[in-house]
Specification:
Dehydroquinate synthase-like protein, alpha/beta, Alcohol_dehydrogenase_Fe, oxidoreductase, 6-stranded parallel sheet, metal ion binding
Length: about 375
């Protein structure tokens, strides 16, 4: 039994323990210390090498924490490899005074911080207080899932309601250090979240679907503006808020995975070294066109057209296909990858990718449709 249905329109939104969300320029120096659970808290920083060595951001947070800084692990790689996660976990578990983890970066550091908290809970019965400082638009700070990559290259993860960070600090001055390609591609990842949550069969109408519509509209507009050179603090902040709106009202009671585009993203991402922002560029538009043939999904997808300045014709399938086309056009307008030519993926991997994404063996109806979609990426 699901908690939310479209016909009849009824549902439940089960909220998370997120207690504070600050946004705007200089939110980190203004609010970080006040967000710690106590004056005696000890915070451990989880981040990536690029942020630690190529920007002043990690050092800035270390200096703000001062005596409350318990250490930093700055070697989290793309897709959060389990070896690095193990190393960071060991450092945290050796210091019993640590009660807080501060993640700085995109999905990999944030997910790693969540996974470390999960592991600490398994041993101590207590989750770490998590303060997330995102520098991309991937929206990992919104979920109770923590993904990481096994030694065989396959993505896996853990989930628990208390893995959602308690505090999120969106700081436009931190976001200004993010490279253009990473910022834009993770923006497409946020669009992927918004649209797949919009047509998810158990998503609550309020607030999830309402905020997904606004998130998608804001991402379409804001990503184009950013690409055109508009990179002031308000533009960055609006995109950060759009990313939050794409997944921040997911809640804790959604049934199953987010959707097929995300499934394909996991099948293509860590096994072949493709960033998840790019996997969304590759798959989302095509998946939306495929979902247009499903009346229940198309009914939700077409709600986006007025937010894109277009009118509905009354033919939901054709209108939903139009949304898919607009997504593909956006990817090209942003100058992002729309096929696999820049990645080392052999065509012989098509059955492997299709099976991972669908969970089906060759011969099923969904398998055939997804196989054709994957073939089109070559």
């Amino acid at each position: 039994m699901t908690d939310a249905t479209s016909h009849p329109l009824s549902g439940l939104w089960a909220t998370t323990q997120l207690s504070k969300l600050y946004y705007g320029p200089s939110t980190v120096p203004k609010h970080l210390l006040d967000c710690l659970p106590s004056k005696s808290s000890k915070a451990f920083i989880i981040t990536g090498n690029s942020l630690a060595t190529k920007t002043p951001l990690v050092k800035q947070v270390e200096e703000l924490l001062a005596a409350q800084h318990a250490g930093t692990f700055s070697n989290i790689g793309e897709h959060a490899p389990v070896a690095q996660l193990d190393e960071a976990t060991d450092l945290v578990q050796k210091d019993a005074s640590i009660d807080t983890v501060v993640s700085i970066g995109g999905g990999s550091p944030i997910d790693s911080a969540k996974a470390i908290s999960y592991r600490v809970h398994e041993k101590s019965g207590k989750f770490l207080f998590h303060i997330a400082i995102p520098t991309t638009l991937s929206a990992s700070e919104c979920t109770m899932m923590a993904g990481f990559t096994q030694s065989d290259g396959v993505k896996t993860g853990v989930r628990a309601a208390y893995l959602v960070p308690s505090v999120v600090l969106y700081d436009a001055s931190f976001a200004s250090h993010t490279p253009e390609r990473l910022w834009l591609s993770t923006g497409m990842r946020a669009l992927d979240h918004a649209i797949e949550l919009l047509y998810h069969p158990t998503a609550p109408e309020m607030p999830a679907r309402w905020t997904c519509l606004q998130a998608a509209a804001s991402l379409f507009e804001g990503l184009r503006a950013y690409k055109a050179g508009k990179r002031d603090e308000d533009t960055l902040t609006k995109l950060q808020l759009a990313a939050f709106a794409s997944l921040g009202f997911l809640g804790t009671n959604l049934k199953g995975g987010l959707g097929l585009s995300h499934g394909l993203g996991y099948a293509l991402g860590s096994p072949y070294g493709i960033p998840h922002g790019i996997t969304s560029c590759l798959t989302l538009g095509h998946v939306v066109k495929l979902k247009a043939a499903e009346p229940s999904a198309a009914e939700q997808i077409v709600r986006l057209l007025p937010f894109l300045g277009e009118s509905r014709t009354g033919d939901d399938e054709k209108d939903a296909e139009k949304v898919g086309e607009r997504i593909l056009e956006l990817v090209k307008a942003l100058g992002l990858d729309h096929d696999l030519r820049n990645y080392e993926v052999d065509k012989g991997q098509i059955p492997v990718i299709t099976k991972r994404a669908t969970g089906q063996e060759e011969g099923g109806e969904l398998y055939g449709k997804v196989e054709k979609l994957v073939e089109g990426l070559f």
